[in-house]
């Protein structure tokens, strides 16, 4: 639950907090996203998965923008909003944490049912 709250805070910060420039916003969000990973995951596979998902989701978003399906109001770097990969990274860490908690709960329920029989 805390991981979801931190992710919502990072997402809210990217939308509502005014920064002097987009580089400052991107660096702040990158630091917060890595802090989210460090606090709730700390695994190499989680970091790799987060980077991979952030890269693939940014590429898919770029393809949508290139094909005219989606349009940014003001792109930062190579027609990409520079904060977008940070949000995808934090989201993938959060979803991984939720999935891990659900799998742990399911294993406990199955173990309890087998002991009752």
Could you describe the 3D structure shown?
- This is Insulin-induced gene protein.
- Mediates feedback control of cholesterol synthesis.
- Keywords: Cholesterol metabolism, Endoplasmic reticulum, Lipid metabolism, Lipid-binding, Membrane, Steroid metabolism, Sterol metabolism, Thioester bond, Transmembrane, Transmembrane helix.
- One of its GO terms (biological process) is SREBP signaling pathway.
- One of its GO terms (cellular component) is SREBP-SCAP-Insig complex.
- This protein has 117 residues and is an all-alpha fold.
- The protein has one domain (1-116).
- The chain contains 4 helices and no strands.
- The protein has helices at residues 2-16, 22-40, 44-66, 84-116.
- Helix 1 (2-16) runs antiparallel to helix 2 (22-40), helix 1 (2-16) runs antiparallel to helix 4 (84-116) and helix 3 (44-66) crosses helix 4 (84-116).
- The two termini are 33 Å apart.
- The model has no long low-confidence stretch (mean pLDDT 84).
List the helices and strands and how they pair.
Layout: H1 2-16, H2 22-40, H3 44-66, H4 84-116
Helix pairs in contact: 1-2, 1-4, 2-4, 3-4
Chain oligomer state: single chain
Q: What percent of residues are in strands?
A: under 5%
Number of domains: 1
Give the terminus-to-terminus CA distance.
Answer: 33 Å
Largest sheet properties = none
Structural class: mainly alpha
Please trace the helix and strand order, writing H or E for each element: HHHH
Rounded to an integer in angstroms, the radius of gyration calculated over CA atoms is 18 Å
Helical proportion, percent range: over 70%
Low-confidence stretches: none
Task: Write down the overall geometry.
Answer: elongated
Number of helices: 4
**Count of individual beta strands:** 0
Q: Look at the structure and give the mean pLDDT.
A: 84
């Amino acid at each position: 639950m805390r991981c979801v709250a931190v992710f919502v805070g990072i997402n809210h910060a990217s939308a509502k907090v005014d920064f002097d420039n987009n580089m400052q916003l991107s660096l702040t969000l990158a630091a917060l996203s890595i802090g989210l990973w460090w606090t709730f995951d700390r695994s190499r596979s989680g970091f790799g998965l987060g980077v991979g998902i952030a890269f693939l989701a940014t590429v898919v978003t770029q393809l949508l923008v290139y094909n005219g399906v989606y349009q940014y109001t003001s792109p930062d770097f190579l027609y990409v909003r520079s904060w977008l990969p940070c949000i995808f990274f934090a989201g993938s860490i959060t979803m991984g944490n939720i999935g891990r908690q659900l799998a742990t709960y399911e294993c406990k329920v199955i173990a309890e049912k087998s002991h009752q029989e």
